[in-house]
Design brief:
Number of helices of chain B: 18
Number of helices of chain A: 15
Radius of gyration of chain B: 24 Å
Distance between the termini of chain A: 44 Å
Oligomer: heterodimer
Shape of chain B: globular
Number of strands of chain A: 4
Radius of gyration of chain A: 22 Å
CATH topology of chain A: ABC transporter involved in vitamin B12 uptake, BtuC
Structural class of chain B: mainly alpha
CATH class of chain A: Mainly Alpha
Number of strands of chain B: 4
Strand content of chain A: under 5%
Shape of chain A: globular
Chain lengths: 370, 452
């Protein structure tokens, strides 16, 4: 009796959602293969640990930037393709500040080179000794400037590029945002030059023993984790405990209804940009700090992963964006266990496409904004 | 004239009108380029060169804008992965047509040694099949999801082409590969030669080159080749135009337009919209693949980083300038984009460099500091001129924003064809073979069209 019931339930499940079952099967095979690799000794535990750590770090950045994208996506109803370049812009603004402070406002190097974040190899972050331990003030001020600058930039762009199109379709806004993205990206290239630069000096790190080896926990890993988690908690509280969060949920759900109910929709939109792009700018700054290098193209490359995360988590849900970010980050990082590293980014996109097939509304479907 | 005489009167006027529009636009563009060249005292060689590259870019952008018009203008499919379809087209073509290599050797991979035409067909077909693969998950979803999936696809492809793991592999004894970061060398017969040889006119063509040699001394062949290639591409543009016009005016095309207007209504009228969208998407992707092949096959080599999303962006601007939904608009948009936004700034740069010795500083810092310290704007201006290729993209971005604000329908977008087989405006006389009439006042039709 028990067996036949289980069997019947299994058949129903298979019939109802063959995609989910197939997905679970693939996941199981991959995990079994991972287990095999670990047992046979093809893969060491500590290597896997390092991959997971890197994936989580990248995932936190993707999640942080994803919150902003997800919020504007659900409240203004368009996919903002300029979001990746907000990351780059915030990063460059923040790092210019950090360089200027670490270079003692021109005392240690030419102020112009400092403000251009060492364009063309004129100053090196390593030589200035930049890092959270060696120059904490420069880093923290840079972090704040990155956030504030991104907020200002996004409000400016919203005023002149997006606001006039508020009542048009999402696609018109999307196309406009592509124009914004190109304008920002190549303006950054025009000013800061096309080269990728190294930013940080070597920082102390903790060595943590892990099963069959050790994992290096760098100071910047810890900084990233602490700041990202703190900001995520802050946003959670802000959206859960204040009227603003409620207003945002109302607007995401039905803008017209929200307006007749007396919600000042333009103010909510402004608040959305402020929170979203503040997190994005800080996330971008942290990303470059953690990675140690920065180029004018990096935000764009990250943007596609952020989109993957937001769609995976369900558009509009900040928890979805965080969880989606972690999953995408982990996928991109851990996938090298099975496939060549050149394809790790492709693997992350593939996860997104699979989600679109199996559960197009995302993991946190229906829970818009918080 | 003969064409016009054979057509019924209203159609004749329209036909004349559209062709005149395109030709007069081209005439203006060419005149401006030639006059500027003459004013600068360009040699005939320089003139032919500038006209050749202008023609080439006008043709490729018109081709791609027409293909995109099938997606966006007719069917409402928001594809921003155009460059991916172009890239897979030319890579397939390269691998099929490159000279075969049988011994594995680092840094040197071959192809299957097929004739060029086989390669072109293969490139087109593979791009269409990639379209199918993308369409399967994405077409049922919202437009913005299709956008994200297509652009992700184009970037995945670029990473695959860049990958060292697929740089070289062996298929049935042939050593082939994607070439990794250094790309592929296109070592097949140059397309112009292949084309005229196939027609049996190669010797006549060489004779023609000798005639031109009277005007362009020493080695006239490369310039003549590129000019002729450009003009051949204009014929392909005409082919695309006719094909898309026929598709658009067929019952199939009317369903596509109906899907653009209201997919659910079309579905409820018994049309399998998914199937229609998939087919239209595949045709458009195939045309983009062919566009990619035609763009890059006359160049000596291809590298993966050429296929960045900015090419997609170019085609979109071309389409939006011209006006989505109108084939004539797509061609004109391609021409304007190529002449003004794409080639224009580069031409301007040459022009300025011809007059002044541009001594550009190495970076933004050295360019700005004289401006701040002793109000000397020259280094900054020189730097601006020198980085015109980056600034060009900034300008294009701003123009895109401007267009979306002020003229989202572009030049001819107001002529977007309605989804009905008969004209929707009140007939002045019994409706005959009316097609593509000016704006459809959709006053509550009862067939496939919807009110906007």
């Amino acid at each position: 009796m028990g067996i036949s019931e289980t069997y019947a339930r299994g058949r129903r499940l298979l019939g109802a959602s063959p995609g989910n079952v197939l997905l679970a099967a693939i996941l199981a095979v991959l995990l079994l293969d991972l287990g095999r690799q670990l047992l046979v000794g093809e893969q060491q535990f500590f290597r896997l640990g390092v991959l997971i750590k890197d994936g989580l770090m990248r995932g936190l950045v993707i999640g942080l930037a994803g919150i902003g994208l997800s919020m504007t996506y659900s409240i203004l109803n368009f996919a903002n393709f300029a979001h990746g370049d907000y990351i780059t812009a915030g990063g460059f603004a923040g790092w210019a500040t950090t360089y200027a402070i670490a270079g003692a406002f021109g005392a240690r190097a030419d102020i112009g080179s400092l403000l251009l974040v060492g364009a063309g190899g004129s100053v090196f972050g390593g030589a200035l000794g930049i890092g959270i331990v060696t120059s904490p003030i420069a880093v923290i001020v840079g972090l704040v400037v990155a956030g504030v600058f991104t907020i200002a930039l996004s409000l400016l762009i919203d005023r002149y590029a997006f606001k006039p199109l508020r009542d048009r379709s999402g696609i018109a806004l999307l196309i406009t945002s592509i124009g914004v993205a190109f304008a920002i990206r190549f303006l950054i290239q025009f000013v800061f030059g096309p080269s990728r630069r190294g930013l940080t000096a070597t920082q102390p790190s903790l060595t943590v023993p892990f099963v069959d080896g050790t994992i290096q926990l760098r100071a910047h890993d810890i900084t990233l984790a602490v700041i990202a988690v703190a900001l995520m908690l802050g946003v959670h509280l802000l959206l859960q405990r204040t009227k603003l969060g409620k207003a945002m949920r109302a607007m995401a759900d039905n803008e017209d209804l929200a307006r007749i109910t007396g919600i000042p929709t333009e103010q909510v939109v402004r608040a959305t940009w402020i929170i979203g792009s503040g997190l994005t700018g800080v996330g971008g700054y942290m990303f470059f700090l953690w990675k140690g290098t920065m180029g004018y193209f990096d935000g764009w490359l990250l943007l596609l992963l952020i989109f993957a995360a937001v769609i995976l988590g369900g558009i509009g849900s900040i928890y979805g964006a965080i969880l989606g970010g972690l999953i995408i980050g982990l996928t991109a990082s851990v996938s090298v266990v099975w496939i060549p590293s050149d394809f790790s980014r492709a693997a992350a996109f593939l996860v997104m496409i699979v989600i679109l097939l199996v559960k197009p509304q995302g993991l946190f479907a229906g829970r818009t904004t918080a | 004239m003969s064409v016009a005489e054979r057509l019924p009167e209203p159609l004749a006027a329209l036909w004349e009108n559209d062709v005149t529009k395109i030709t007069s636009l081209l005439a203006v563009i060419y005149a401006v380029y030639l006059l500027t060249g003459a004013a600068l005292g360009f040699s005939p060689r320089g003139q032919i060169n500038s006209i050749a590259s202008l023609t080439f870019y006008i043709a490729v952008f018109a081709l791609l804008a027409l293909a995109l018009n099938l997606h966006w203008g007719y069917t409402g499919l928001f594809n921003i992965g155009i460059v991916g379809f172009m890239a897979i087209g030319i890579y397939t073509m390269a691998i099929v047509s490159k000279a075969p290599v049988f011994a594995a050797e680092t840094g040197r991979s071959g192809g299957f040694g097929m004739p060029i035409i086989v390669g072109i067909i293969a490139g087109t077909v593979v791009a269409a099949l990639l379209g199918l693969v993308v369409a399967l998950p994405a077409l049922r979803l919202r437009a913005d999801y299709l956008a994200i999936v297509t652009i992700a696809m184009s970037e995945i492809l670029r990473f695959v082409f860049l990958s060292g793991d697929l740089e070289q592999f062996t298929v049935a004894g042939y050593v082939v590969g994607l070439g990794g970061g250094s790309g592929l060398i296109l070592d097949f017969t140059p397309p112009v030669e292949a084309f005229f040889t196939a027609l049996g006119l190669w010797n006549a063509y060489l004779g023609f080159v000798d005639v031109v040699g009277a005007v362009v001394p020493n080695n006239p062949k490369p310039v003549v080749d590129s000019l002729v290639y450009g003009f051949l591409l204009l014929f392909v543009v005409a082919g695309y135009y006719v094909l898309l016009r026929r598709v658009g005016n067929s019952p199939f095309g009317r369903v596509l337009k109906a899907i653009r207007e209201d997919e659910e209504a079309t579905n409820s009228l018994g049309k399998d919209t998914d199937a229609f969208k998939t087919k239209a998407f595949m045709v458009g992707c195939g045309l983009m693949g062919l566009g990619g092949v035609l763009w890059f096959m006359a160049q000596g080599a291809i590298t993966p980083n050429t296929y960045r999303p900015r090419l997609t962006f170019f085609v979109w601007i071309a389409l939006i300038i011209g006006g989505a939904g109108s084939n004539t608009g797509s061609v004109m948009g391609g021409a304007i984009f190529a002449a003004v936004l794409f080639q224009g700034p580069r031409y301007l740069k040459n022009l300025i460099e011809n007059f002044v010795e541009v001594d550009a500083p190495s970076g933004f810092g050295p360019a700005v500091s004289p401006l701040i310290s002793n109000l000397d704007p020259l280094p900054f201006l020189f730097y601006t001129i020198d980085s015109i290729r980056q600034l060009q993209l900034v300008i294009m971005g701003l123009i895109l924003i401007y267009l979306m604000h002020n003229r989202p329908q572009g030049l001819l977008g107001h002529r977007k064809e309605p989804a009905s087989g008969v004209p929707l405006d009140r007939p002045r006389r019994p409706a005959g073979e009316g097609e593509g009439r000016p704006p459809a006042a959709a006053d509550g039709g009862s067939r496939g069209e919807t009110d906007e």
